[in-house]
Amino acid sequence: MEPSNHQIIITGASGFVGQNLQKHLKDRPWKALSRNPSARDLSYADFWQQSDLSFDHYIHLAGKAHDLKKTSSEQDYWEANYELTRKLYDRFLADPEAKSFIFISSVKACADRVAGWLTEETPCTPETVYGKSKRKAEEYLLDNLPEGKRVYILRPCMIHGPGNKGNLNLLYAFAQKGLPYPLAAFSNERSFLSVDNLCWVMLRLMEEEITSGIYQVADSGVFSTNELIQMMAASMGKPARLLKIPAGLLRAAARVGDRLRLPLTSERLQKLTESYKVSNEKLLDALGSDLPLSAEDGFKKTFEAFKG
């Protein structure tokens, strides 16, 4: 794909996805919109005040994700995930040069638990304030779709890659230390997404005339947590150690962890063992091709980054 000369404005450029996206932009001109701007960034205050600033493409990565430490208020989520999105989108609508708006939502804007496959047609019933605030932002965009401009709501599933911090790191620590994985009694199937594939999708959406709307983003294929442990161990040349402790005993231990704030909590146990299958068929049909990185190759790249 040839680099374009289009100007891009990005929120959340310093985050996990944003840092990886910067590597993919190469010589495409872009600016970061930041609350604590560096010399090359643009502050939110300046951006809101200077109504004559125009950009071809708006990429909205900023938002508030799950708060594992439980220190955030519900208002924090609404301000970060809905109010900021609404304000930025209004600016996009008023920008005469703007061509596309890419909003990173989440599959959790639709459902916290999935029976079978999650698709774009699945009725949305988010349960957490995170999911509800993301869904409210989606609805605002969908209710105000403009003519002559493209609007993309991307719903990624669990994203991984260099710089990732999350439950995959916890799993990798088990494999790296040679500790037995104690949750092998659970059988699940999950979708994952390489951050490189997500960045590639965003570049394609800026460059091509693809229909506006909601698109789920996931690598092709699903994996159990036990398979992930085996792949991690293989990447280090170690045998995988899978320990099948009875599921009922682990759930009881997790409830104790809830009260004592131990590493194993009910929420973490659910995230590590639940099934969550995300269909990417609509996206692949719109792009006319598969994603460039296979799920297996994406995991290999992430595991190599964990070694560093």
Key words describing this protein structure:
single chain, two-stranded parallel sheet, NAD(P)-bd_dom_sf, Rossmann fold, Epimerase_deHydtase, 308 residues, alpha/beta, 11 helices
Summarize the structure.
This protein is an alpha/beta fold. It contains 11 helices and 11 strands.
Oligomer: single chain
Annotation, overall tally of beta strands? 11
Structural class of the secondary structure composition? alpha/beta
Order of helices and strands: EHEEHEHEEHEEHEHEHHHEHH
Largest sheet: 7 strands, parallel
Low-confidence stretches: 1-5
The global form is: globular
Strand composition percent: 5-15%
CATH top-level class of one domain: Alpha Beta
How far is it from the N-terminal to the C-terminal residue, by CA? Answer: 30 Å
- CATH topology of one domain, by name, is Rossmann fold
Describe the fold and architecture:
The chain has 308 residues and is an alpha/beta fold. It has a domain at 8-160 and 191-218 and 277-293: 3-Layer(aba) Sandwich (Rossmann fold), CATH 3.40.50.720. It is 42% helix and 14% strand. The chain has a 7-stranded parallel beta sheet, sandwiched between helices. A two-stranded parallel ribbon has the order 6-11. Strand 1, helix 1 and strand 2 (30-34) form a beta-alpha-beta unit.
